[in-house]
Specification:
This protein is 70% helix and 1% strand. It is an all-alpha fold. It is globular. The relative contact order is 0.12.
């Protein structure tokens, strides 16, 4: 066998292994439910586990890909500019707020290295189609889990069964959040519509092709009906965009021969059938299911006052990690009563969030990220590259009404993967492989270790927080990475409160009170405020307790415990 043949065979084996790893994550690992106490980011065990897998994927690639060529693109440099601009405001942000921002910054930097790694593999059309099938199947798995949660939650594994009962209709699938699951289903729906419309995907055997079309059509109807059942506005919007973009794509003169009139009719008719089925499954009217009047009022109010906050500090921002305390205190300091009726950790718009916290530099970083997508959009592409880029739209639009990328690493990975598939030809520079392979292997190894430690700590701390840990004192011996130290210190403080309740040792109570006093400066937690007020009264410090109660009422007027 010639050297060229051996090299080609070796690269083929690497490609097959990479796609087997993709299948393992998208079709199995990401759907495993893990006990948790809610929240987002690294506090959800599936997210550090996702990063652990992605780091493993990166290490595998850099270990076995021994090419001396390094691929890059304008999009990669725009992403680098973006994360640098996102990071610079950390130098003048309040030190106490940085633990809130560090997980987000770490995720952004990790995303850059993931995209750089993905660029080294030049995706071909067949590989792109394989990815579409994988994402479609992954979405259908989540759709199935969601439907089981709606109609027979007892059949779900723990903790999905308990969440489905406790939050009936609002914690579907492994994402445990209605809109996050809906945008993922819309992404899968988009991929399915493309696979249906493109006649070049037809199988040679007529029976197998009919089976393929039957399965795709069934999946489209079921996923569309489930999105409607979710009464998620961003899910509905993502589904509508999927149908419209696929229709426009295949009606273009360049790509019309890739489809038929019958297929182009099906990509509209099947979602309509699914939508009608979803309407029949709804237990309320279509308009009522989309109104969410109380949610509308709070979100418009938040957007309005976030813009007012930005107008006060447009250049430097309020500081990374400062949105939650800054927003609540901004609202509390308004003349008259505080109009807010909900705790807001995020303005439900990523653009305003980064501007409010990081100022004009962070906003410039966000614009760089937007421009990177536009650069890909303007590039001459084949139809499958167009589809890869457009399939990111349901998730990207979701970032403008919520923060799905913090809830789900799978969403973030999907966007990076699909954009890398859409890149097509990249620029190449020849470098000594040791200049970039060895550092990136070491970085991937560190990512594996760090992510696994975070996953383990998240499981243990989640069990402690939900009183499922048999020996609560064991958390004092837990090795917790730097990205989770803020949560760990909070749980150590809660352990001091448990110790006081068991032993009556007043020293433990005073330690908790001291730690809790620092916590509530950064976290507008109603229960933590109430605990602090009760403890101050117990310690015969009524003046401090009354002052804190008055402050809590201004910050959280919706909580009756703080009313005068």
């Amino acid at each position: 066998m010639s050297t060229y043949s051996r090299k080609k065979s070796w690269l083929k084996k690497i490609n097959v292994s990479l796609f087997m790893l993709f299948c393992f994550y998208w079709l199995f690992l990401m759907h495993l439910p893990w006990p948790n106490n809610g929240d987002y980011g690294m506090n959800l065990p599936m997210n550090p586990l996702g990063w652990c897998f992605i780091s493993l994927l990166g290490m595998f690639f850099w270990l076995f890909n021994k090419k001396k060529s390094f691929h890059y693109s304008p999009v990669l440099w725009l992403m680098l500019a973006c994360i640098v601009l996102f990071t610079i405001p950390a130098f003048w942000s309040p030190h106490t707020a940085l633990p809130n921002a560090m997980p987000r910054l770490a995720g952004i930097w990790a995303g850059f290295f993931v995209y750089m790694t993905l660029l080294q593999h030049r995706f071909k059309e067949k590989e792109a189609i394989t990815i579409f099938y994988i994402i479609s199947l992954s979405a259908f798995i989540e759709c199935s889990l969601s439907l089981v949660g709606f109609y027979c939650p007892n059949y779900l594994p723990f903790p999905l069964n308990e969440l489905a009962k406790k939050y009936s209709g609002y914690a579907p699938g492994v994402f445990q959040q209605l809109n996050v699951t809906a945008s993922f289903l819309a992404t899968g729906l988009f991929a399915l519509l493309y696979l249906l419309a493109d006649t070049r995907r037809n199988l040679h055997e007529a029976i197998m092709e009919r089976l393929r079309l039957l399965l795709i059509s069934t999946f489209i109807i079921i996923i569309t009906a489930t999105i409607v059942l979710f009464h998620s506005r961003i899910g509905w919007l993502g589904g509508i965009i999927a149908v419209c973009c696929t229709s426009i794509l295949f009606f273009q003169q360049r790509f019309r021969l890739c489809s038929t009139l019958w297929r182009r009719t099906l990509i509209v008719a099947l979602p309509v059938i699914g939508g009608l089925l979803g309407v029949l499954m709804l237990q309320q009217g279509v308009v009522d299911s989309l109104l969410h009047q109380s949610s509308n009022n709070q979100r418009w109010l938040t957007l309005d006052y976030t813009l007012r906050m930005i107008s006060e500090h447009p250049w430097r921002g309020w500081g990374l990690g400062m949105f939650e305390p800054a927003f609540q205190r901004f609202m509390a300091d308004l003349p008259g009563d505080n109009p807010s009726r909900e705790m807001m950790q995020h303005p439900h718009n990523e653009t305003l969030f980064i501007w409010a916290e990081g100022g004009i530099l962070a906003l410039a970083g966000g614009l760089c990220l937007l421009w990177s997508w536009i650069v890909l959009f303007r590039r001459h592409k084949s139809i499958w590259q167009w589809a890869s880029l457009l399939i990111t739209l349901p998730i990207l639009l979701h970032t403008q009404v919520e923060f799905p990328l913090y809830y789900s690493v799978a969403h973030f990975f999907a966007v990076l993967l699909l954009m890398a598939v859409a890149e097509g030809n990249t620029r190449v520079v020849n470098l000594r492989s040791s200049l970039f392979r060895v550092p990136l292997i070491a970085l991937s190894l560190y990512g594996i270790v760090l992510s696994f430690q975070l996953f383990n700590a998240s499981i243990v701390l989640g069990n402690f927080e939900t009183t499922r840990l048999e020996a609560p004192q064991s958390i004092t011996r837990l090795s917790v990475p730097w990205l989770m130290q803020m949560r760990y210190q909070r749980d150590i403080a809660l352990l001091q409160l448990i110790n006081f309740n068991e032993s009556g040792d007043i020293t433990e109570l005073e330690r908790y009170a001291s730690s809790n006093a620092q916590w509530i400066k950064m976290h507008m937690d109603e229960d933590a405020y109430n605990d602090q007020i009760n403890i101050l009264n117990f310690l015969n410090r009524p003046v401090e307790a009354e002052k804190l109660k008055s402050d809590a009422h201004r910050l959280m007027p919706w909580d009756d415990r703080f009313k005068p």
